[in-house]
Amino acid sequence: MSDRRDGTPEASLADADADAGTAPDGGHAAATPSTHTVRLELVDEPGQLLAALHPIADNGGNLLSIYHERGNKTPRGRIPVEVDFEATPERFEEVVDALRSEGVNVMQAGTERYAEEVTLLLFGHLIDTDLSDTLSRIEACESASVADVSLAAPQGTEEVSSARLRLEARAGETDAALAAVRDLAAEKDLRVVEPLTGVEA
To answer: First CA to last CA across the chain, in angstroms?
Structure first.
């Protein structure tokens, strides 16, 4: 069940709102703040949500709401969190850069959506080569996000297995995402089967 603020101390949200109103350099005062949404992927550990909020508040974001999807985990077993906040366009870019600098996986930022989708298959010793590491490294490529994973290991985890990956890529960056997967597959001696673009499966 989803829940607002998800146990985040009231003081931290209030402080973030107060900090967001300041513009010490005066450079952003002329721009009109607008509402932005960032969709984050957080490890399910205490303090992770609060740590992700600091870059928003520290860079002038005025927090409006937090949607913490406890019952819906990403393919890597992490929790998606949607944060709405007000900021000028310049401040918004600074917030997103700060989040990524802190190692927070930003799955979606404002209107920056993963507009392209591609499904591919990986074959090989997926378990022995650490499937979790494989997914994490694909996610580390800023061009794409792993939307869904389906693993099949009919002969057991010690034998060759396959995984169907559905990737969501930013507009125009599907090739870069696929290149990252190919490089990783070559390193781990995995085989990649890619779909033909523009053809219905």
So the answer is: 34
